[in-house]
Amino acid sequence: MAYSGQDGQSGLPQGFLWGAVKAGIKASGNPDVAVAVAPRGASAAAMYTKNRVVAAPVTVGRRHLAATGGRVSAVVVNAGNANCATGEAGIQGCVETCVAAAETFGCIFDEVFPSSTGIIGVPFPAGKVVAAMPAIAAVLGDGAEQAEAFATAILTTDTKKKVARATIDVDGVEVRIFGVCKGAGMIHPQLGPPVPPHATMLVYLFTDIAADAAQLREVMPRAVEDSFNSISIDGDTSTNDTVLLLASGVSGVRLDDRTAEAFESALKLVCGSLAHQIVDDGEGVGHVVTLAISGAATEADAKTVARSIAHSPLCKTAWSSADPNWGRLMAATGYSGVSFDPANVSIRIGGLPVFEGGMRSPAFDEAAAHEAMTAREYTIEIDLGEGEASCRFLTCDLTEEYVKINADYST
Amino acid sequence: MAYSGQDGQSGLPQGFLWGAVKAGIKASGNPDVAVAVAPRGASAAAMYTKNRVVAAPVTVGRRHLAATGGRVSAVVVNAGNANCATGEAGIQGCVETCVAAAETFGCIFDEVFPSSTGIIGVPFPAGKVVAAMPAIAAVLGDGAEQAEAFATAILTTDTKKKVARATIDVDGVEVRIFGVCKGAGMIHPQLGPPVPPHATMLVYLFTDIAADAAQLREVMPRAVEDSFNSISIDGDTSTNDTVLLLASGVSGVRLDDRTAEAFESALKLVCGSLAHQIVDDGEGVGHVVTLAISGAATEADAKTVARSIAHSPLCKTAWSSADPNWGRLMAATGYSGVSFDPANVSIRIGGLPVFEGGMRSPAFDEAAAHEAMTAREYTIEIDLGEGEASCRFLTCDLTEEYVKINADYST
Questions:
Q1: pLDDT tens for residues A203-259?
Q2: Which positions in chain A touch B400 (Cβ < 8 Å)?
Q3: Hey, is the C-beta of B362 within 8 angstroms of any chain A C-beta?
Q4: Which of A291, A295, A353, B275 is 20 to 30 Å from B385 at the Cα level?
Q5: pLDDT band at residue A409 under the 50/70/90 scheme
Q6: For residues B40 and B57, what is the distance between their CA atoms, to the nearest angstrom?
Q7: What distances in angstroms separate CA A362 from CA A177, A325, A356, A359, B87, one per listed residue?
Q8: Count of CB contacts below 8 A, A vs B?
Q9: Which of A50-64, A272-286, B99-113, B394-408 is modeled with the greatest confidence?
Q10: CA angle A87, A89, A94 (to 5 degrees)
Q11: Phi-psi category of A28—alpha, beta or left, where left has phi over 0 and alpha has psi -120 to 50?
Q12: CATH no. of B2-280
């Protein structure tokens, strides 16, 4: 068994139909309601934001998966309005869209999974979503064109669509995984368990492997922890973040001891690619920085240090000008709350030594370090010298462009 | 007994001399070494950054106060180099400056309290500080001019000097408190106990009340918690933050049951004024925002919510454009980790209702709220509806100017 992965629209998993239309929710007038339908239904598992303030669709979606025990026949996503902090009216509006979808796509109400992304606190235009259902039913299809329409309609401030795929071959039968997501602002997902999320991130993972919901609930957190829970753009955690994994079973291949390892590897490949695409397309991002923390006493410590640095405005602004200011890295590591001895810490930027033995490395070459940081992507390695645990965390710089975008974002 | 407070240089506490000179540490060529001398010595208490990475002077100063049991005769401050992450050489350089100061000002080595602020990780130019001692001895004085010179020399990216004073009258005898500080970037002090600090903040509080070190150690944390530990500019916690309180005793008035309350009130007045000046002069600050969190189960919860909002790039960028985006406030409150029911939360900006009952307030007037946020200073009130605890936290917006300043800050 081996798997191969590549971004793209081909080789879509069987058992799903996609479609999208313009419902007039996005000010831009672009397609803003997307639907994915599993005619024969699909096993489902989901992870949501850990934010205490959650959007209506998160509340309703959670309720539906609990009621069905993990069964989804239709996913209805709207972009342009987050349907969050919209009170009881927001819940009602979300329910209305689920009712309309159930009637349109011939499934029971509880098997509709809703998602919304966009501005918080603005009354939800349920009527527009409901009115769009017949038009979507008319354009549904299982081809690359329809899947791409779905991937495009869920975007908000994203500048490009984000998709990834991987396949595993089981005795000559191809099992496919297709992932679609949107990100941009407010990104620091913390999906629970294990952790909490931010700037609305919506992720839909479709596969045609045969698995029950319990199996999906078990495999999903491991793939999410090393991908979506290991990225941060601005440290803000959204009220809508959702990752949904659907398995149609149409491939006929079961998720079992023989296939589990390959499937999990392929799923991680897809999640990792999508997570990277989200950071790379973050608001105003000039540099994608991988924080490779090692020598930590525990993996939790390693992640705490990574998050402290990833959320430091001083570190992030220094990256925006390719400034090898390791002093800020040490300061952010120091206030992370993690215990360590500065004398045992070593830091490398783009592979170049900058700090060791409690002070600037004798080999520190500022010009070379600056040059390495002018690359679109590079890695900052920090060895805490405390233990064997490590983590890799993906983040980005903080630019004037980010401030401009978010200062202009209107209520 | 009553106290009155006003910023200004007059009415300085007795028993202290101040002075400053140019030692060639600041690239600008401005005065960069400041000294305060207590000819007859002073009782002392200090609070330092909780950052695990601390500057050499913090290590040395802590050692000295421990050795003397809280006695200081001379304070030596240099700006332009933080003497942090400079290894053993940094400690040695700091010790050399203390030795030179002790010889110059005729006190014992342990009674010299060192401070440094500026760039992290650059070898400390001890020789320049040592060479400056005779020149400073020649300009020492107890007048407004010398105190102002001290207040100016310790500044780095600050745009203006920061001083505050208060006096209390005890049976006709005036007891004076004079505070001096510097702030600017990397500000989110967390002074321990009770909490941890950032962007180097140095605070020197001089008083001529008669008190022993133990009394100062008791009164100081209460004044610091509601002032320097309740502000944040960028959420970064510096490696050098220090607050030093010195009591010369020259007024002849003792800190006792009769005077304690008035003295503590006056001290809080001075600390509160300095803390406000630090935020008001923060890098690229366009708006000073007071977060008034109420209805929390505990004061710790209230502060956690305030810090979550004060550190949210999305909230801070919205403030920069006077955008009443309460959705971001709710999101940041939601991911703070504090438990609450969104349905019971109410938010007012500049006194105007924006959110209540789990949704946008029926009385929400976006234009009016925007207008209120165009003021240089305003208050955001958030009632969590959970309990009786509250806090006031001072912070600011995140502007393109802040990014520009810190992206340009060179290693």
A1: 999 999 999 999 999 999 999 999 999 998 776 777 888 999 999 999 999 999 999
A2: 400, 403-404, 407
A3: no
A4: B275
A5: low
A6: 23
A7: 49, 15, 8, 9, 12
A8: 234
A9: B99-113
A10: 105
A11: alpha
A12: 3.60.70.12
Query: Which stretch of A248-252, B73-77, B196-200, B243-247 has the lowest confidence by average pLDDT?
Result: B196-200
Q: What is the pTM of this model?
A: 0.81
Is there a binding annotation on residue B200? yes
Tokens 């992965």 appear where?
A5
Contact of B207 with B246, CB cutoff 8 Å: yes
Most confident range (mean pLDDT) of A3-7, A144-148, B180-184 is A144-148
Residue B131 class from Cβ within 10 Å (0-12 exposed, 13-18 middle, 19+ buried)? Answer: middle
Q: Which CATH superfamily is domain A288-407 in?
A: ArgJ beta chain, C-terminal domain (3.10.20.340)
Minimal CA separation from A26 to chain B, in Å: 18
Query: Do strands A352-356 and B3-6 pair parallel, antiparallel, or not at all (unpaired)?
Result: unpaired
Residue with tokens 């010790």: B95
Residue-range domain boundaries for chain B? 2-280, 288-407
Contact (Cβ atoms closer than 8 angstroms) between residue A10 and residue A144: yes
Verify whether the Cβ–Cβ distance A335 to B185 is below 8 Å. no
List alpha helices for B81-143, DSSP H: 87-105, 126-139
B49 is catalytic: no
Closest to A240 measured CA to CA, from A51, A27, A63: A51
What is the rounded CA–CA span in Å between residue B164 and residue A260? Answer: 67
Out of B123, B320, B335, name the one closest to residue A237 (CB).
B335
Q: How far is CA A54 from CA A86, A235, B304, in A?
A: 10, 17, 19
Average pLDDT, chain A: 90
Looking at residue A410, its amino acid is S
Closest chain B residue to the Cα of A308, Cα to Cα = B236
Measured in angstroms, the CA of B359 and the nearest CA of chain A are apart by: 5
